[in-house]
C-alpha cells in the first residue's frame, strides 16, 4: 500500500516544502490540494503548472491525486443557482485537465452540503447530473474521478458506502470510482471495512487518519480514537494494495512539517506491525 501526503495544511508554506518533506519523510506520492497559493486550477492553466512539474521532477515525487478546493467558497456544485452549478462544473473540468497535465492518476471530488431546504430528490438529481458530466470529461482526459463520502458535519448529500453504491447504479463508467475517508464512517458508527465489501473493485483510494466522535477533525494517527493498528491489520488481511493518503488538513497549519513527519512515522509503524 502506497502512502501519500495531502498538502492542504502546507498552504502557509512554500509549495516546495511539500515535495521536500514528502521525499525526506518517506511518503510515496503527493495528493495535491488545489487551492491558492499552491495549485488553483486557473493559476495552473495560466502557466503555474510548470512549477508543479519542476518540483515533481526535482524530487521524483509524483502527484498521483489532485483534490481541488470545491466544498466551500466559491465552489460547491451541490448548492446555489444553475449558473453557480454550471460555474463549478466548468471549474472542475479545468481541474481534470490540469490533473492530466501533471500526470495524476485521479482527481477527487466530494458532494458537499446541499442546503437545508433541499429534498432527497433534488439532491440526487443535481448530484447525478453533475457527476455524470464530470465523468464524461474524465473519460476524455483519462483521469479517474474518485468520489468521497463526507461526515454529516460537512454534508447532507453524500455520507455512506450505500450512497456510493447508489451513485454507481446511476452512473456506469470505469472512470468513476469510490473511496473511504475513515473519519465519516467512524463518527457515524458505520463500518470502515464494510466499504471494502460493498464497493469491491470500485474501492479505489483511502484517506487514513485519526479522529474522535462528535467532530470531523482529522488528527495525527495514534492521537485520536480510531483503532488504527487493528485497521491496518484488517487492510492487510483484506489484501488492500491500493493508495492511501494521510489526510492532515488545516488543524496543524502552524507546524505542518512536524506533524507530517509524525503522521508518516506512526503510520509506517502500524504498517510494519501489520506485515505490510
Please describe the topology of this protein:
Elements: E1 2-6, H1 15-25, E2 29-34, H2 41-59, E3 63-68, H3 82-101, E4 106-109, H4 120-141, E5 144-147, H5 161-170, E6 176-181, H6 183-187, H7 194-199, E7 203-207, H8 228-238, E8 243-246, H9 256-274
Parallel strand pairs: 1-2, 1-8, 2-3, 3-4, 4-5, 5-6, 6-7, 7-8
Helix pairs in contact: 1-2, 1-9, 2-3, 3-4, 8-9
How many helix segments? 9
User: What is the H/E order?
Assistant: EHEHEHEHEHEHHEHEH
| Overall geometric form | globular
Characterize the quaternary organization of these chains. Answer: single chain
Average pLDDT level: 97
In short:
This protein has 276 residues and is of the alpha/beta class.
Salient structural properties:
alpha/beta; TIM Barrel; 9 helices; Xylose isomerase domain protein TIM barrel; isomerase activity; Xyl_isomerase-like_TIM-brl; Xyl_isomerase-like_sf; IolE/XylAMocC-like
Question: Can you put this structure into words, describing what you see?
Answer:
This protein is of the alpha/beta class. Helices cover 45% and strands 14% of the residues. It has an eight-stranded parallel beta barrel with strand order 1-2-3-4-5-6-7-8, surrounded by five helices. Helix 2 packs parallel to helix 3, helix 3 packs parallel to helix 4 and helix 8 packs across helix 9. The protein is globular, with a radius of gyration of 18 Å.
